[in-house]
Write a structure and sequence with these properties.
ten-stranded mixed β-sheet; GMP Synthetase, Chain A, domain 3; five-stranded parallel β-sheet; AMP-bd_C_sf; ligase; Rossmann fold; alpha/beta; ANL_N_sf; 512 residues; 26 strands
């Protein structure tokens, strides 16, 4: 299989004058960007980085970030991006774990990198006017004597660090061949055409951002950088660059809809919507479909380890459905406590979702984490930690995380089912459900609600009573909050709700 450097060259050779990347006033064609990427690769090589070395990149979604990612693919260096909001101890851990040879930093991440004793010993490449041992512009000074094309399909392209909601983050090394297969699958599953333009707002330290970057190169498309998510900037880019496809987490869609309702925006160019990272509640799904009227609306379910588990190209067809297995993968649902991949559950029965690692998109093992391998990899299958079920039509529904499952009075209760029902109430803006300790029931179901307009617990309780939600799943308490706590990429942080880390509003919240 082609490595990613040669993959980029395909677009350079097919369509050198096509627009490839935009960042504010900077607009580069494939031929222009290739020249810049080659210069950066040469600059990195001059600093002593070569095949198999890790380059730690702590940048926002700016053109330098995307250029460095591609330069690593030509040079055989392992791109190792970190969240630009990372703390010094996280930088320390990841720099040590990856044995990074250099770190790229900008003003927004400078304090964290400066506070890391490990990063302080590395060659520091500075972007955006920040003082450093090497200025990014110095990497551009010399073109290589001959084109740099040092990687092969078996080399490691990228190492993403998982969010590490519990314990230390885990490094997920991914080979060129797996990254290319994932990008090809993404193109096919989202029906991308030649010349698509996407909003490059999902961070390039996250698998969704990387997938958007690679997918555009496969179709001679354009990656429109939005360094830090901001609704106004996102809509300006959509209108100015005639963005055709969006691939975002539900939270960003939610925020964009709220902003547009107040300010308006031209979205006529957007033909395709895709979402991943978290289930989309029914209310938001309906509002997006009514607003964008997309020709394609894809629910994509995957992870850093195996990019695609399943997808549904008609997200509104059956609300909540993640569809069927991706074109490069095989999936199963096994018992929640299963130790083997052959312990399948019956249709309609909730269990843990697993995916075969023989698939083209899959990683092989975590970086230096045999403990994590032992927990998640069994007999050639990856145990995702996600719960779900397959209905009688064969469609997969993702109901949450094994760790999020609420056990109340001996019954297993998925938060997602309850959230979907409550999200359809017109007064509810966002909702998250968690299990809080209860002396009688073990855990009681509590709904944390952010509202659009005033409403009390009794009104919501009556609404739920008249829904198709089974009575034992009904919330026993409603807590009205100013915001639902989320991760930087929009995942609900239920552990913060359980720990009481939220701002409650003074509204009636108890019910029975």
């Amino acid at each position: 299989m082609l490595d990613l450097g040669r993959t980029f060259l395909q677009s350079v050779e097919r369509n050198p004058g096509a627009l490839a990347v935009v960042d504010g006033e900077q607009r580069l064609t494939y031929a222009q960007w290739y020249d810049r990427i080659q210069r950066v690769a040469e600059g990195l090589a001059t600093l002593g980085l070569g095949r198999g070395d890790h380059l730690m990149i702590v940048l926002q979604n700016r053109i330098e970030m995307a250029t460095l990612h591609w330069a690593c693919q030509f040079l055989g260096v392992i791109a190792t991006p970190l969240n630009w909001r990372a703390k010094p101890d996280e930088v320390d851990y990841c720099a040590t774990d990856s044995q990074a040879k250099a770190v790229v930093v900008e003003p927004v991440s400078a304090q964290a990198v400066a506070g890391s004793t490990v990063a302080a010993r590395l060659t520091r490449i500075a972007v955006g006017g920040l003082e450093g041992t090497v200025q990014y512009e110095q990497l551009l000074e010399h073109a290589p004597a001959a084109p740099i094309l040092a990687a092969c399909g078996e080399d490691v392209s990228l190492m993403l660090y998982t969010s590490g909601t519990t314990g230390k983050p885990k490094g997920v090394p991914r080979r060129h061949r797996a990254e290319r297969a994932a990008a090809l699958g993404h193109v096919a599953q989202n029906l991308y055409r030649r010349g698509e333009r996407t909003l490059g707002v999902m961070p390039l330290y996250h698998t969704m951002g990387v997938r958007s970057l690679l997918a555009m190169a496969l179709v001679d498309g354009a990656f429109v950088c939005v360094p830090k998510f901001d609704c106004a900037a996102a809509f300006r880019s959509i209108e100015a660059e005639r963005v055709t496809c969006l691939y975002l987490v539900p939270t960003l869609y939610h925020d964009m809809l709220a902003w547009r309702e107040k300010n308006g925006a031209d979205i006529a160019s957007v033909r395709k919507l895709g979402f991943a990272g978290a289930p989309m509640q029914d209310g938001l799904l309906k509002r997006l479909d009514e607003t964008f009227r997309p020709e394609l609306f894809v629910n994509h379910y995957g992870s850093s380890e195996v990019f695609t588990f399943a997808y549904d190209q008609d997200a509104t067809r059956k609300a909540g459905s993640a569809g069927r297995a991706g074109i490069n993968t095989r999936i199963r649902v096994v018992a929640l406590d299963a130790e083997r991949p052959d312990q399948l559950v019956a249709p309609g029965e909730e269990g843990q979702i697993i995916c075969e690692l023989a698939g083209d998109e899959a990683f092989e093992a975590y970086w230096n984490r045999p403990d994590a391998d032992a927990k998640s990899i069994r007999q050639g299958w990856y145990f995702t930690g996600d719960t779900g079920y397959v209905d009688r039509d064969g469609d997969l529904f993702v109901s949450g995380r094994v760790d999020d499952m609420i056990i109340s009075g001996g019954e297993n209760i998925s938060p997602v089912d309850i959230e979907s029902v409550l999200s359809l109430h017109p007064a509810v803006d966002e909702v998250a459900v968690a299990g809080l300790a209860d002396e009688r029931w073990g855990q009681r179901v509590v709904a944390f609600v952010k509202t659009r307009v005033g409403i009390d617990a009794e009104e919501l309780n009556e609404y739920v009573k008249h829904s198709d939600l089974l009575n034992f799943k009904r919330p026993r308490e409603y807590v009205f909050v100013r915001e639902i706590p989320k991760s930087p990429v929009g995942k609900i942080l239920r552990r913060k709700l359980v720990a009481g880390e939220y701002e409650a509003l003074e509204q009636q919240g108890h019910t029975q």
